[in-house]
Amino acid sequence: MRLKLGCCITHGGDTIKIGFIGPGKVGVSLAHYFTHKGIELTGFYGKTIKTTIEAANTTKSKFYNNLEDIINESDILFITTPDDIISIIDKKLSKFDLNNKSICHTSGSLSSTILSNAKNSGALIYSIHPIFAFSKKDTDLKELESIYFSIEGKVTDQYTDVIHLVRSLGNKFFIRGEQTSSLYHLANVFVSNLTLSLLDIGTSYLKELGLSEKDAIMAIYPLVQGNIKSISEKGFVKSLTGPVLRGDVVPITKHLSVLKEEHKELYKILSLNLLNLVSLKDNKNTKNLNDTQIEFINKNESVNVNKENAIKNLMNNSKKHAEIYKILGGLE
Q: Do 158 and 291 sit in the same domain of this protein?
């Protein structure tokens, strides 16, 4: 399918139309964003009539109560349902002629192969995952301007409709392999869901001091925001701060004395990882390099600098860091 880009996506002069199955936060937010970018929607199909009509109305598109109709009137269909519903939708779609249709789901944990029935009915299938935490249907469109998309599916043909769709948005994207879904989703969970859990734990100690949850969140917000800004500008190694970096044994020992038992192992694991970063920062062979160069060195076996050597050098050259390493359980 060869497409042209303009104020909208076209194929042979005809506008490419996008439909959504699933009127939830992801579907409605993406629909708003697509129309904001000049992409034409057909509308929404969903299990619950009320929410589906609301989704269609808010995006100025059409409500469908018949699956065949939205298939016939759409060129690309996005399945934006919970993960466990996708295979059910796939089977329902496969009952129709899907030739010249592209079927996409937006799950980060599932590969495109979950749409195998749709593929057998003639569709091109994709997993297109927006790397963003959609917490509401009216997501700020400016926030979506900077998000990345990852794409998995048949992308060898540079003229595939979904590639042109994502390119027309102006967002950055990357291609991932069919076998990498679990690893890819794990990365997202670490930096999103597990980070949320970590922030909850951190603010719980502030609440013990008498702060409300709202005050605790607002108190840490500049700290978190500043860290993210620094990491985006300088990378992880050059953004290090705190007692592990400085080799301050006393505050770390005090932390361990007041930590709740269920948080101690987590504290030690995360602090040991910080020590690994400190070792790269302080290593004479890497301290003047940026994170990308350090990563290259660590992956290049022909260069005698890696994380294991770096941490050993740090332990040999810094008694205070060696003591911290032992306190955290890094040494027997």
A: no
- State which residues form the domain around 122: 4-180
Are 162 and 219 found together in one domain?
A: no
> Do 72 and 89 belong together in one domain?
yes
Whose CA is closest to 21, among 57, 60, 58, 48? Answer: 48
In a domain, 187, yes or no: no
Pairing of strands 9-11, 14-15: antiparallel
Q: Tell me, yes or no, whether 18 and 79 share the same domain.
A: yes
| pLDDT reading at 186 higher than 50 | yes
Q: How far apart are CA 161 and CA 143, in angstroms?
A: 24
Compute the average pLDDT of residues 122-144.
95
CB 230 within 8 A of CB 291: no
The two three-digit tokens of residue 51, written as one number:
């929410």
Domain final residue, candidates 180, 215, 246: 180
pLDDT band of residue 160 (cuts 50, 70, 90) is confident
Are 34 and 23 in the same domain?
Answer: yes
d(CA 327, CA 331): 8
Q: Is residue 238 classed as helix, strand or coil in its secondary structure?
A: helix
Q: How many C-beta atoms surround the C-beta of residue 108 within 10 A?
A: 23
**pLDDT, tens digit, 9 for 90 and up, residues 272-290:** 999 999 998 866 445 555 5
Q: What does the pLDDT look like over 60-104, one tens digit per residue?
A: 999 999 999 999 999 999 999 999 999 999 999 999 999 999 999
Q: Is the pTM of this model over 0.85?
A: no
The single residue listed with the structure tokens 């890696």 is 306
Q: Rounded mean pLDDT of 188-209?
A: 96
pLDDT of 301: 43
**Residues 271 and 165 grouped into a single domain:** no
